[in-house]
Amino acid sequence: MANGNEREMSLSRVFWITLRRDLMLAYRRRNDLVSPLMFFLMVATLFPLGVSPDPQFLSEVAAGVVWVAALLATLLSMDSLFRSDFDDGSLEQMLLSPQPLSLLVFAKICAHWMISGLPLTLMAPLLGLMLFLPQEGMSTLVLSLLLGTPTLSLIGAIGAGLTVGLRKGGVLISLLVLPLYIPVLIFGTGAVQAASTGLPVGGYLAILGAILALGMVLAPLAVAAGLRISVSD
Q: Name one GO cellular component term (predicted).
């Protein structure tokens, strides 16, 4: 019993150490933090200029624009998830570590979401106001992004793990994960549109939560397998 508790504490400690390490490294590379946010802001800002500034039109498409911008901004930062560890040899040390690789991967994905997905979610209400999103849909927008952006990071990490050994894996990541992003985009946008029109949103959010739970269980295992394949090649 004591050994089981010690192992659980050890795994928890490894998780938090890995999470803290990645957050500290991200803080030192501030350009990597700012780029997805600037991209997110630019897409939502330029859309009215390129299509139509009509408030009625923008209120109808606001949910889709914010969600597509968040998806693309998350995808923009996925290539760097394992790239620096691969370049400096840290990734090989992770593979040789006695600790479960899936646990280390999950910690890195959590750090990625905290430095990309969470700031995007916090910025979303501002972009919603800019795009005349109805007030009824504002809280649902934030909640749907809180459920959806971690899933985007989990799915994107699978593509990043499979392509980490390639010099230019960014385009390949997009080809691999964009089809898997579509359900999250559909239900996330649908939840906000339903809330804006006064319809119930519980079903949409429940599906987003189920996808997130499934991704938390399966994605770290898939990423770990992908990393072993990439590094061994």
A: plasma membrane
199, 136 in Cβ contact below 8 A?
A: no
**Burial classification of residue 205, based on how many CB atoms lie within 10 Å of its CB (0-12 exposed, 13-18 middle, 19 or more buried):** buried
Q: In the prediction, which pLDDT does 3 show?
A: 55
Buried b (16+ CB within 10 A) or exposed e, 157-170: bbbbbbbbbeeebb
Instruction: Answer for the pair 148, 184: CB distance below 8 angstroms, yes or no.
Output: yes
Torsion of CA 146, 152, 158, 160, to 10 degrees: -110
* pTM higher than 0.85: yes
Distances (CA, A) of 223 to 10, 22, 81, 104, 106: 22, 17, 11, 10, 9
pLDDT score for 2: 46
Q: In the chain, what are the domain boundaries?
A: 2-232
What are the residue ranges in the chain where pLDDT is below 70? Answer: 1-9, 30, 32, 167-170, 233
The pLDDT value recorded for residue 168 is: 65
Residue ranges of alpha helices (H) inside 29-81 are 30-50, 55-76
Question: Phi, psi at residue 53, to the nearest 5°?
Answer: -90, 10
Residue 16: count other Cβ atoms within 10 Å of its Cβ.
Answer: 11
